[in-house]
């Protein structure tokens, strides 16, 4: 057996173990139920609201975002698929129609990785335009508002209890972790990785190899610090995954902002754009367990209050209803 055959056998074995671990997590407690909502929606408003989505088959590009939104909204609102909206579903945007008190309003969700990209055709017809990669400097048109961000997979809500428990355990953990391909933002990623690889203050594990999503989350939960670097956009699924499990995240500064801003030193730690203090920041939090634990707990709370799919869906609809009730005034 040559080295390539050995590598294939090793990959099959690793994949088998990854699948077994994933199935174990899926059998556990589900964290998809929220008991304390950040945005409350009046029962009367809910009964008078009907939400129309494009057909799912036309939203493959935007599926990770839309499926979370659809599943959460249908818990409290009447939801229907409207083929008439399909033609508006393009250029990384999904347009939905909200019917409230027998009047209809269009709302756009922009999932583009590029904060400067605005779909003007969708904006023109919308009462509100939720931009995921929202430029922290804002936009001239005040209908464009922060859209937050979501997890990549709906299965994350099954994984979260196990992964949080793993983070809280006293098991030996790697110091600093990151898994990044070099397809996007390669200059930034390479610079950070090179700095971490040559330093001698702590251990750092990095890989560009693609593995199962659940396996990467287990790796993150077995790490004291997780590094967040940009891809095509400043926000990525990785960041929200890290926040959801309560990781201590050290991140490249975001030029974008969430609907509820992340706070440096509270629920995330930002390094300098040139990474000049990256090693020192990691070293500090590795050697200050209580400070690191505060960041982890605050990250977890931030996700539960603002990014959980049932929370962010309520943010969307309550924002739209506020605009409607104020006759379109933002």
How would the blueprint of this fold be written?
Blueprint: H1 3-26, H2 43-47, E1 49-53, H3 63-73, E2 78-81, E3 93-100, E4 103-110, H4 120-125, E5 126-131, E6 144-146, H5 156-168, E7 174-179, H6 186-198, E8 204-207, H7 213-221, E9 223-228, H8 237-245, E10 249-251, E11 269-270, H9 278-286, H10 289-307, H11 309-325
Parallel strand pairs: 1-2, 4-5, 5-6, 7-8, 7-9, 9-10, 10-11
Antiparallel strand pairs: 1-3, 3-4
Helix pairs in contact: 3-11, 5-7, 8-10, 10-11
Protein name: Spore maturation protein CgeB
Domain Spore protein YkvP/CgeB glycosyl transferase-like: 222-304
Organism: Armatimonas rosea
What's this entry about, in short?
It is built from eleven helices and eleven strands. The chain is α/β, with parallel strands linked by helices and about 325 residues long. The protein folds into two domains: about 45-150 and about 310-325; about 155-305, Rossmann fold (3-Layer(aba) Sandwich), CATH 3.40.50.2000.
């Amino acid at each position: 057996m040559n080295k390539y055959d050995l590598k294939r056998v090793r990959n099959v074995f690793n994949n088998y173990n990854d699948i077994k671990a994933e199935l174990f997590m899926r059998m556990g407690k589900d964290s998809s139920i929220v008991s304390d909502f950040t945005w409350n929606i009046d029962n009367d408003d809910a009964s008078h609201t009907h939400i129309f989505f494009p057909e799912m088959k036309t939203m493959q590009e935007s599926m990770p975002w839309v499926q979370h939104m659809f599943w959460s909204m249908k818990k409290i609102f009447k939801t229907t698929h409207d083929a008439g909206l399909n033609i508006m579903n393009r250029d990384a945007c999904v347009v939905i129609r909200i019917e409230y008190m027998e009047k209809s309003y269009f709302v756009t969700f922009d999932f583009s990785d590029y904060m400067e990209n605005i779909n003007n055709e969708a904006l023109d017809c919308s009462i509100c335009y939720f931009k995921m990669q929202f430029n922290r400097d804002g936009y001239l048109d005040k209908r464009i508002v922060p859209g937050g961000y979501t997890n990549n997979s709906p299965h994350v809500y099954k994984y979260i209890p196990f992964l949080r428990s793993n983070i809280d355990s006293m098991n030996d953990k790697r110091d600093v972790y990151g898994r990044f391909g070099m397809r996007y933002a390669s200059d930034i990623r390479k610079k950070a990785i090179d700095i971490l690889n040559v330093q001698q203050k702590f251990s750092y594990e990095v890989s560009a190899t693609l593995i199962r999503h659940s396996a990467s989350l287990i790796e993150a939960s077995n790490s004291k610090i997780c590094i967040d670097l940009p891809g095509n956009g400043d926000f990525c699924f990785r960041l929200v995954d890290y926040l959801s499990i309560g990781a201590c995240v050290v991140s490249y500064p975001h030029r974008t902002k969430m609907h509820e801003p992340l706070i440096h030193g509270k629920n995330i730690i930002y390094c300098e754009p040139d990474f000049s203090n990256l090693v020192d920041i990691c070293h500090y939090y590795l050697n200050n367990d209580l400070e690191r634990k505060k960041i982890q707990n605050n990250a977890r709370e931030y996700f539960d209050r603002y990014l959980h799919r049932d929370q962010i869906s309520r943010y969307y609809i309550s924002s739209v209803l506020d605009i409607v009730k104020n006759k379109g005034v933002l």
